[in-house]
């Protein structure tokens, strides 16, 4: 069996940005006259913006009007742009990507964010222009649909059975399961270990640094091996 290709989520997996997204969504909801507790918003982060807005509106039995969803997404983008200076890589994120590159392990980043939203955070990671980055712009449906991960595997040129998805939310792991890839969970997005395991994670680590320390457990052999 070849070394598996790794497909990594961005927000909450490589970048410490989940709670900035939550606060940005709260501001967006407030802008359209909707008050919602931040914990309810957090439970939906990881979905695409459109699905997240739709899920939140359905949860509070608010009419599902397309104009409201469009306003919410626009307001969220503007609010998140203000929080962007407080966003940075999670511990070990840069080192993990550098290690994978050095060891010639195929990897890609797959995010439910648009490229415009993700561009600045990708730059903080030092991701090269040549890296495989799949965003919401590239697929018909985002998480929890499997399209992002299916496209990532296609671009890497590997079989889905030889790919491993690294994500921080239950939506990542549900999408990984639907894509027929192995799923690994990180706690750095705020979900609990039990939730991630129930959603399909075969291993759970704290953050990218912890994953790197145990990288052999996901099938990536260390140089001395």
Write the layout of secondary structure elements.
Elements: E1 5-8, H1 18-31, H2 38-42, H3 49-59, H4 66-83, H5 93-102, E2 107-110, H6 115-125, E3 132-134, H7 147-156, E4 163-167, H8 170-178, E5 182-186, H9 193-199, E6 201-205, H10 208-213
Helix pairs in contact: 1-4, 3-4, 8-9
Features:
single chain, 225 residues, alpha/beta, Rossmann fold, DNA polymerase, domain 1, 6 strands
Task: Summarize the structure in words.
With 225 residues, the protein is of the alpha/beta class. The protein has two domains: 144 residues, 3-Layer(aba) Sandwich (Rossmann fold), CATH 3.40.50.1000; 68 residues, Putative phosphatase, domain 2 (DNA polymerase, domain 1, Orthogonal Bundle). It has ten helices and six strands; from the N terminus they run E-H-H-H-H-H-E-H-E-H-E-H-E-H-E-H. Strands 3-2-1-4-5-6 form a six-stranded parallel sheet, with helices on both faces. Strand 2, helix 6 and strand 3 form a beta-alpha-beta unit. Helix 1 crosses helix 4. The two termini are 15 Å apart. The model has no long low-confidence stretch (mean pLDDT 89).
